[in-house]
Amino acid sequence: MVNLGDIFPDFTADSTEGTIKFHDKIANSWAILFSHPADFTPVCTTELANVHKLKPEFEKRGVKLFALSCNDTASHNAWTKDVLSYSKKVLDGSEETTLSFPIIADPDRTLAVKFGMVDPDEKDAAGLPLTCRAVFIIGKDQKLKASLLYPATTGRSFPEILRVVDSLQLTATKKVATPANWNVGDEVMVVPSLSKEQAQTEFPQHRLIEVPSKKEYIRLTVTKDM
């Protein structure tokens, strides 16, 4: 299991783009490693098709993408055709023959177990557990910044994952936090660790929201100049 703030472990694995040495592949970029239960399944197909379509948005943010499941590379390569077909027919994707990110093979479940991605309630025909829908967002420093776990029955919202990346990248360099339902361009919160004087210096345009407790901890500021 990898905890927030830990260096995400390096590994070497086969993939649809050949052998991947993870740390070398991500280099000094942000990265997302996300697992899916199995190839040739309906929800997983919709997820990877959506990620494929959103690849330009992830690239704008300097994020490299890596999918993973317990299937082997031959299965991944064959399934890719279905993913691209779904993207074209349902998501109005372009005519493409190559998926825009690699799918890592983990047939012996070494990585799934190591990273806590095993779903005990979902098993293959042989009775072996499948990977859950995990998401690991990794920063330029190779540390884990956020992680999400979904069951097999619930497909992920990748626009929401983009929103999380936007928040992580903003708050990595600015002394702010993003409130509920925040999107790029919305006001952000000045972090409580900044004193009243520091907040005035760093964010002279911020505003205080008065509350019954009289505690001055809800301070909003704009992000357009950040």
What would you say this structure looks like, in words?
This protein has 226 residues and is an alpha+beta fold. The chain is built from six helices and 13 strands. Strands 5-4-3-8-9 form a five-stranded mixed beta sheet, with helices on one face. A four-stranded antiparallel beta sheet has the order 10-11-13-12, with helices on one face. Strands 1-2 form a two-stranded antiparallel sheet. Helix 2 links the parallel strand 3 and strand 4. The chain is elongated, with a radius of gyration of 20 Å.
Features:
226 residues; alpha+beta; Glutaredoxin; Antioxidant, Horf6, Chain A, domain 2; 2 domains; five-stranded mixed β-sheet; four-stranded antiparallel β-sheet; 6 helices; 30% helix; elongated; redox-active center; Peroxiredoxin-6; antioxidant
Provide a concise account of the structure shown.
Helix content is 30%, strand content 23%. With 226 residues, it is of the alpha+beta class. It has two domains: 6-156, Glutaredoxin; 174-221, Antioxidant, Horf6, Chain A, domain2 (Antioxidant, Horf6, Chain A, domain 2, 2-Layer Sandwich), CATH 3.30.1020.
| Sheet with the most strands, sense and barrel status | 5 strands, mixed
- Number of strand elements: 13
Mean pLDDT: 93
CATH domain class of the largest domain: Alpha Beta
The arrangement of helices and strands along the chain is: EEHEHEHEHEEEEHEEHEE
Strand order of the largest sheet: 5-4-3-8-9
- State which percent range the strand residues make up: 15-25%
Q: Give me the number of helical elements.
A: 6
Low-confidence stretches: none
Q: For the terminal residues, how far apart are their CA atoms?
A: 35 Å
Number of domains: 2
Could you name the CATH homologous superfamily of the largest domain? Glutaredoxin
